[in-house]
Every structure is written in structure tokens, then in C-alpha cells.
Amino acid sequence: MTLEQTIKQIKPINLDLLDEAQRRLDNLTKPVGSLGRLEEIARQVVAITEKRNPTFSGKTIITMAGDHGVAAEGVSAYPQEVTPQMVYNFLRGGAAINVLARHVGAKVIIVDMGVAFELDPHPNLISKKVDFGTKNIAQGPAMSHQQAIQAIEAGIEVTQAEIPKGMDILGTGDMGIANTTPSSAIVAAITGMPVAKVTGRGTGIDDKTLRHKIQVIQHALEVNAPNPHDPIDVLSKVGGYEIGGIAGAILGTAAARVPVVIDGFISTAGALIAAEVCPLVKQYMFSAHNSVEIGHKVMLEFLGLAPIVDLNLRLGEGTGAALGIGIIEAAVKILNEMASFEEAGVSQAEK
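Below the sequence we write its predicted C-alpha cells.
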């Protein structure tokens, strides 16, 4: 399905069911509003899915992998060959995302969006490789306009292939050495915030490297001059293939009325692109957590999203999204399994 066709399929969430779910929550055996954001989450899931008693039997995390030409500028603590090494670790089930996905009962799908190496075929690896890594954004555009659309449409294709298999909630994830650099460039370009206010330490770089990273991003924005009102232009000028893939996955999932749980900084860069392409997708998003990366909070405020947890995470992969899925499932179980005052024979509060 094309990007244009997907956007046309994205509809507002059902506000009538939002209100109906809240009335049900208010009649459960607890003081009104006492389960806080769990109630807010449960009613949003009902409004998204248009199911009065939603359950999750197809929990899925899609981790998009891609490399970045800007790694040549020395902006990361790790060499680029770590990207394919970690992809193989994912496929063997040995990474943090595998552990946390198993914990919440979610399957993990790995997508090669643009790893700069030829990966060996694997039954759990989907190849949507646009190119062998992006170009160096410090010297010119990351990719062509057409490649940016290709990346987004690849993300749409992956999710829309999973919907018929039963995917009923999506967690986004990423892998790509140096990908906090394009993510910071995206948030600076779209929000207009100064680069220094949205650029963090990524994999744990020192002060000197952080100053250099800020200069590289600032230079990339000057060289490429992305149009802040054109998200495809921003993606093509300073983005990444996995970021485009995440944006497409979010759009494709929203078009199917399925909730999307956004992971950390890189995933939220994809969410930012998706929301600029189609603002309605924000109604389908849950922010799993607040990343240590300083630009993440700027992104979340711009999107109007409140993180579910704050655990000082900065790994990516979809790790925060896995935890978010667990909490979202707990919220809908409250709605589905908790007794009402009438069912329990419990007296309600006096009016």
C-alpha cells in the first residue's frame, strides 16, 4: 500500500467509545479515577480498536535496523560493524529486547532497512534494504526523496503483512550505530530547538565527542537546509532508513486501528515524521518511556505525549516499548476483569 493510500485510511479514534469506557471504569470497585493513567490508557485502547473488551494475543515488536554515513564523523562510541553484530544477536534471541519481549509475551521481528553490510538470510529477518546505509549528512542529503518514501512505504508493508497474522499491538524498536545523530537533527529541524538542547550522549560519548557531535549536526542542518514543514524532506536530508521504516510502521498500524507503543529517542524521531505526515496518528500512539536522551522530552512535548514510565533507559531496540506493552495490557485487564460495584455487592460512594 502506498503512503498516500495509507494516510487516507487513518481515521480519528472513536470518541463515543472513549466516553463509554470511562463510564465503565467509573463503575468498577474503586474510587473514581483512582487507577490514574491506567484508566486513561484503557479507554484510549477501546477508542482506538473500537472493541469494548480489547485483549492482546498478537503482541509484536518490530525492530528496524539501518546504518548511517555520519558515523564516519566519529559521533558514536561504537564502530559501525556493531549494527550487523547486534542484528545477529537479536536473531539468536540474546539481546535485551529478546529478554523483555519474552517477558511480556511479544514476538520480535527484525527488519533490515539499510544495514551497511550484506546480512545472511534468516527466517526471522525481513529484508527491506533501501541502501547500504545512508550518506554522510555532514556532506549532503542522507538519501534521495524517493528513498525516503521507499523507507516509509517499506515500514507500512511490514506492519500490514503482520495485521492478518493477528498483530493487535505494535511496539517500535531500532538498531543503528550513530542513529541518535540523525534523530537529533530531525527534532531540531522540525521543532526549531537549538541543536545543543536536543543532542545527548547516545552510546555514552565523552564531553569532547559530544561537542563535536553537536557541531556535526549543526553543520548538517546548514548544508542540507531541510524544510521544517515537509517531513519527507527532513527525513531525506538528515534522517535514516530505520527512522523512515518506523514512521511507516506507525502509519500502517494506525490505518488498521491498532495501538502503537513508541520506544525511545530514535523511535520517537520516526513518530515525529509520522505525525507530521498525518497528525491523526498521534491518537494511536503511546509513549512507552522517557529516554535519558535530552531531545526525547522535547519530542514528546511537541507530540503531546506523556511517557508511561521513566527508568533512565537509553538502549533502544524496542526495550522500553516491551515494558510499555506490559503496562498497557495490565490497563485493559482492569477494564475487562475488575468487578463493578453491582457485581461485587459493594456500596458506592455517597453522593
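The first strand starts at residue 59 and ends at 66.
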